[in-house]
Amino acid sequence: MDYREYVNKVIKNIPLGIAITDGEGYVKNVNNKLLDMFGYKYANIVAKPIFILFKEPNEIKKLLMDKKSIIDEEVFINAKTNRIRFTLSAYPIYNANGEKKDIIYIFDVTKKERKMADRISQNKAIYTFDKIISQNERFIRLIHFAKEISDSKSTILITGESGTGKEVFAQSIHNYSSRRNEPFVAINSGAIPKSLIESELFGYEEGAFTGAKKEGRPGKFELAHRGTIFLDEIGEMPYDMQTRLLRVIEEGTVSRIGGLDQKVVDVRIIAASNRDLKEEVEKGYFRKDLFYRLNVLPIRIPPLRERKDDIPLLVDYFMEKISLRLNKKKISVSKEKMDELMNYNWPGNVRELENFIELSINLGYMPKLEGEKIEFKPKDIENYKYEHLMLDHVEKMHIIKVLKIFSYNITKTAKALGIGRNTLYRKMTKYEIDCAESEHCSITEQSD
Ligand SMILES: Nc1ncnc2c1ncn2[C@@H]1O[C@H](COP(=O)(O)OP(=O)(O)OP(=O)(O)O)[C@@H](O)[C@H]1O
Ligand SMILES: [Mg+2]
């Protein structure tokens, strides 16, 4: 590959949207990322005036006419399906005589959105109550209660099935409280090895154990000072750690592993569990005294199937939000389809609904819900993508779609799918795809 080819390749794949226009503003070339970002095909843009993309082109046009560069200007782009905010930088390119020749435009996701992404990794809470969607009376009362207790120093215990919004609530409470500008530090006992929980929570002093960092390290409690600590999946916390935690709550101080000092920490504790902790107490897995210490302000989030009136609202909300993010068209939901969504029991709750809408937007239609067949275990949802769980289902739906396109002609369908006829027959048998209605379709083994 020569140098020029190499540069072209880099520009093509750089993670910023890039367009080059001539002096008149006609697009000469764009990179792949720009097409992805805006949802256009190459032919939709090239040789067209770049200003078909902008909502307010005049200001920018003027700047460029004045031979000025534009740096990180916020612009609204008329993307294929939506208006999306980007930051734009643009630079005129001069020829050897110093005349302005082409203009290079660089589009990036807005700083605001990037800041959001940064906040997630920097001990910050991003959710706020206004992003918790509900019209259910009981749920609205719960939000009201959560707001009222946001400034209390007492411990909150949030329980609810997986995907009901426990973390969303915890973050919203923090952001509603006077601690909002202080850290929100989360630790998930179910997600880190048991042997590391202690040092994660309490930190350690220099040389506390082999492999410890030379200068020691603060624990999450110290990091959360003045803010909130979110103890997620508290039911997974080992028994001896529960004892230490209880002491922290009672004394308001922490000491690092291998350390002698007791540090006073001012931390608001919010704990969450998708297990019934009372049951865990009865079984002897969870300390009774700790349970009562945590359960001072209980918030029990009801599963989605107990507030079905929220389903249409959430469908609309996620449809809007996700289509905007993916820059894809919304799916219309027929009355029958909505009935189906209402009758489904949503074992993965709001997260499952959200993922289902994302899947539908990606597919361009709503696949059938398979009811009890999809089993959601709390951990699965953390570890797998919904699409992963649904792969068989997606395959089945796709096969049916293609069969319909080709009026159930097996040879044509198999060819379109890029598989052999026998493989297609096998899959149709496996998924119990009924094609009796078609004259072309006979499920008998034929050689490919
Ligand atoms: N009422 C709601 N309105 C809008 N979005 C919601 C609502 N409840 C939950 N969500 C969405 O569902 C997703 C899952 O919520 P969250 O992570 O808080 O669940 P969780 O109860 O902590 O589940 P898990 O027990 O599996 O950790 C969130 O990312 C959020 O997008
Ligand atoms: Mg959670």
In short:
InterPro entries: AAA+_ATPase, AAA_lid_NorR, Homeodomain-like_sf, HTH_Fis, P-loop_NTPase, PAS, PAS-like_dom_sf, Sigma_54_int. This protein is of the alpha/beta class and 448 residues long.
Structural features:
alpha/beta; Beta-Lactamase; Rossmann fold; Helicase, Ruva Protein, domain 3; 3 domains; 20 helices; disordered C terminus; binds adenosine-5'-triphosphate; binds magnesium ion; nucleotide-binding
What does it look like?
- With 448 residues, the protein is of the alpha/beta class.
- Residues 116-120, 372-386 and 442-448 have low confidence and may be disordered.
- Strands 2-1-5-4-3 form a five-stranded antiparallel sheet.
- It contains 20 helices and 14 strands.
- It has three domains: 3-112, Beta-Lactamase (2-Layer Sandwich); 123-300, Rossmann fold (3-Layer(aba) Sandwich), CATH 3.40.50; 304-389, Helicase, Ruva Protein, domain 3 (Orthogonal Bundle), CATH 1.10.8.
- Strand 11 (253-254) and strand 12 (263-264) form a beta hairpin.
- The structure holds adenosine-5'-triphosphate and magnesium ion.
- Pfam families: AAA_lid_14, HTH_8, PAS_9, Sigma54_activat.
- It comes from Tepidimicrobium xylanilyticum.
- One of its GO terms (biological process) is regulation of DNA-templated transcription.
- Residues 132-362 form the Sigma-54 factor interaction domain.
- GO terms for molecular function: ATP binding; sequence-specific DNA binding.
